[in-house]
């Protein structure tokens, strides 16, 4: 078995490593926080009453993914959040969440806010979809 690589010291090709494995941290003892994923779509009267745009209630027609993460006893300054195209990586001193997102997102257009009274981090990410007959916006 020969490994074809531009660097002779490597033991595997980049194609052999699964996507997101650089975030795998199975030996980290921090617990996983509770979280919920919601899908959000922007609809107008032309969608609700007339059905002109062809949108339906499925996740295939949603524009945003909203992730609500419960972080009890956490301060805003303790949160480290890294968003990639298909991965959300959240770290606090007590909690750790590595979440593979259901759809690719535009990591540059996301926003996050910490609701201190609810001890919840709310992350909103824009879904990155190719232009097709279903997603015309």
Automatic annotation (TrEMBL):
A GO term, aspect molecular function? protein-folding chaperone binding
**Top-level division of the source organism's lineage:** Eukaryota
Q: Per the database entry, which stretches of residues form a coiled coil?
A: none
Residues in PIH1D1/2/3 CS-like domain copies: 32-127
Q: Which Pfam families match?
A: PIH1_CS
One cellular component term from this protein's GO annotations in UniProt: cytoplasm
Q: Which GO terms describe its biological process?
A: axonemal dynein complex assembly; flagellated sperm motility
The family classification in the record reads: Belongs to the PIH1 family.
> What PANTHER family does its record include?
DYNEIN AXONEMAL ASSEMBLY FACTOR 6, TWISTER
Question: What is this protein's record name?
Answer: PIHD3 protein
Species, as recorded: Oreocharis arfaki (tit berrypecker)
- Top-level taxonomy: Eukaryota, Metazoa, Chordata, Craniata, Vertebrata
Which gene name belongs to this protein?
A: Pih1d3
């Amino acid at each position: 078995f020969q490994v074809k690589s531009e660097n002779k010291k490597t033991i595997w090709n980049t194609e052999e490593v699964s996507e997101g494995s650089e975030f795998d941290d199975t030996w980290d003892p921090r617990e996983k926080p509770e979280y919920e994923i919601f899908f959000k779509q922007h609809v107008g009267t032309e969608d609700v009453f007339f059905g002109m745009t062809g949108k339906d209630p499925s996740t295939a027609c949603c524009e945003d993914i909203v992730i609500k993460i419960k972080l009890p006893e956490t301060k805003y300054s303790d949160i480290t959040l890294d968003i990639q195209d298909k991965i959300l990586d959240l770290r606090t001193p007590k909690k750790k969440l590595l979440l593979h997102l259901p759809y690719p997102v535009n990591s540059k257009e996301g926003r996050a806010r910490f609701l201190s009274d609810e001890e919840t981090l709310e992350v909103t990410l824009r879904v990155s979809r190719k232009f097709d007959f279903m997603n015309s916006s």
